[in-house]
Design goal:
Helix content: 25-40%
Strand content: 15-25%
Number of helices: 9
Distance between the termini: 34 Å
Order of helices and strands: EEEHEEHEHHHEHEHEEHH
Largest sheet: 6 strands, mixed
Structural class: alpha/beta
Strand order of the largest sheet: 6-7-8-3-9-10
CATH superfamily: P-loop containing nucleotide triphosphate hydrolases
Radius of gyration: 18 Å
CATH topology: Rossmann fold
CATH class: Alpha Beta
Number of domains: 1
Number of strands: 10
CATH architecture: 3-Layer(aba) Sandwich
Length: 246
């Protein structure tokens, strides 16, 4: 099976600022891939290019076999995206949000209902269909957002810090759902600031100042560095004062 994501020498420059600099990696299908790095490291810019929302200055990329430059519109319709900032309508019920996003994806009302029946159980949403989203807890809101992003059945989910501000129990439940999706062959690219989440990913990339400084299985990165945790690897990599340690 071909990789779900292939990036080769990807670069994005804004005037004199190089936001993403010569980044290359490949992510197999069915992988949970964690993109780790501090604010300003180039994670969000990389994601925007992979989503077909921003044209790279140089290099190339393929998502689900689609070129991120020449087939950007197909890329957008083929993936599911969940932003860091909660983006659902809080004055609508859970089901009203589901129908709204389903209509954006061009799904007929009957099909939206059928898909929600399956998703409601998988995302642990059953019983709250008529509740206003604004009255839900943070963990519930994130699961509704994930259901909306997955409603059209994409083979790639891109999640930007999906568990930020969510309590530990809800984070664990969210991760159980992601693991189930990956087991079914769905590829998941996610950014996170939680080191325990990064260590739970199948693959992890460490970005700093636009460059990719480490890529691989978390256990391998930890072992190669001879350090006790991925957090220690990252701290060692960045070094004091933000200077990358080669």
């Amino acid at each position: 099976m071909p990789p779900a994501i292939v990036v080769e020498h990807l670069k994005k420059q804004f005037g004199p600022l190089v936001a993403v600099d010569d980044v290359s990696f490949a992510v197999p299908a069915g992988t949970i891939f964690g993109l780790l790095g501090p604010n300003g490291s180039g994670k969000s810019t990389t994601i925007r290019m992979l989503c077909g929302l921003m044209r790279p200055s140089a290099g190339s990329g393929q998502v689900l076999g689609l070129d991120i430059v020449h087939q950007a519109e197909k890329v957008k319709s083929s993936i599911g995206y969940m932003s860091q900032k909660f983006s659902l309508y809080e004055d609508l019920t859970v089901m009203e949000n589901i129908h709204f996003f389903g209509s954006i994806y061009g799904l007929p009302p009957a099909e939206i209902g059928n898909r929600y029946q399956a998703l409601g159980e998988r995302m642990r949403l059953s019983g709250r269909e008529r509740q206003l989203v604004g009255t839900l807890s943070g963990g519930w809101k994130q699961r509704v957002a994930l259901a909306c992003a997955f409603l059209h059945g994409p083979r790639l989910l891109i999640l930007d810090e999906p568990t930020a501000g969510v309590d530990p129990v809800s984070r664990r439940l969210f991760w159980d759902i992601l693991a189930g999706l990956a087991a079914d062959g769905v590829t998941i690219l996610m950014t996170t600031h939680y080191m325990d989440e990064a260590e739970s990913c199948h693959l992890t990339a460490l970005m700093f100042r636009g460059r990719l400084h480490a890529f691989g299985q978390p256990a391998d990165l930890i072992r190669q560095a001879g350090l006790p945790s991925l957090e220690d690897v990252f701290i060692h990599m960045v070094g004091e004062g933000g200077r990358v340690v080669e």
